[in-house]
Amino acid sequence: MDFTFDEQQRDFRSTLRAFVDKEIVPVANEYERSGRYPTEIVAKMKQMGLFGITTPEEYGGLDLDKVSFTLVYEELARGWMGIAGILGSHNLSCWMIARHATAAQKRELLPKLASGAYRTGVGLTEPGAGTDLQGIRTTARKDGDHYVVNGTKTWITNARHANVLPVLVKTDTTVSPAHKGMSILLIDTTTEGFDVQRDLGKLGYKGTESCEIVMTDVRVPESALLGGVEGRGLQQALSGLEIGRLNIAGRSVGIAQAAYDAALVYAREREAFGRPIAEFQAIQLKIADIATQLQAARLMTYWAASRADGGKRVDMEAGMAKTFASETAIMASLESMRVHGGYGYSTEFVVERLYRDAPLMAIGEGTNDIMRTVIAKSLVAGHGVIG
After folding, report:
1. Degrees to nearest 5, angle at CA 85 with 80 and 132
2. From CA 303, how far away is CA 300, in angstroms rounded?
3. Closest of 337, 326, 334 to residue 363, by C-alpha
4. Of the listed 74, 209, 352, 365, which one is catalytic?
């Protein structure tokens, strides 16, 4: 059993780590406090090809293996989780398009998306439908060679910067079960009636926008139907979320790593009663717990990613990695704050940002409660085997 990176993965991680340490870590707190969008960081990520990590090479992408894919999010989230979010939704969308789109749709969109000339995200969640995607109310009524779309989407990352947005709609509201009438439309965001109405306030996850979108009689050509066949939208979305959960697991590991690094540095430097607090057993126990769960989360994430590289469905593996790693991120950020004492509550230290960013990892790409049901169903059905 080999738990080491190959040479290409090691070099790639070194490049990512140097970029994060130089370009993101020094400015993350300042950018977040001021509400500044990280335009310069995005431009550098375009130059590095990071907007094309899930796009096939024939369309100008990097087409990374899934372990390297998770490394991208681990390293970026170690610096600032919001930056990882900018890439997360974009590359999930690119993966769906690369896997499900028609040849014409791939030729038209993927080269622009891989370079970052075009940006994208995913339009799934609605005010009344998040976990239960079959409960969406956004409709797409056929009118000649167009669809007329009406509805609202919420918590949409990259909404203000997206050129094209895959939107989950109901093309048939009468069929049962509901998923048979669901499709994804690749909507040009400049189309009349497509309105990004507001940015949603958030506890953490700053740096990238999360918006509410209202679509009023938006006319979308039938050529924008993902894959060219109606009724496959939910399956297309769920296949993307499976890979998205590896992204969330990687981000969670990055947050936990940053929390561990901060706790260890502070414990070595902070003195109480005439010696560094790292010498006190109570502090040592916290650091040991963070480090142990962090490494377990990292290995589980790489395991799930390597299974995906084997061409297998990874509902169970990605669900396990996402659940365990996100809970680890929450634990690590809180325990790191406790190591810091009062300074952990200060905006001058990174740990309070980590504490605010971590909870989203237990919610995004499917809540951890839902992940547990996904894991259990896979085990009961015999698709997943443990031991």
Report:
1. 135
2. 5
3. 326
4. 365
pLDDT per position as a tens digit, 326-366: 999 999 999 999 999 999 999 999 999 999 999 999 999 99
Is 1's pLDDT higher than 90?
A: no
Measured between alpha carbons, how far is 173 from 139 in angstroms, rounded to an integer?
8
Q: What pLDDT, in 10s, does the model give residues 151-198?
A: 999 999 999 999 999 999 999 999 999 999 999 999 999 999 999 999
What does the chain come to in residues?
Answer: 387
Residues paired with residue 188 on neighbouring β-strands, in sequence order: 164
Instruction: Mark whether 365 is an active-site residue.
Output: yes
Which pair of tokens denotes residue 202? 């958030």
Distance of CA 192 to the CA centre of its chain: 29
pLDDT for position 30: 95
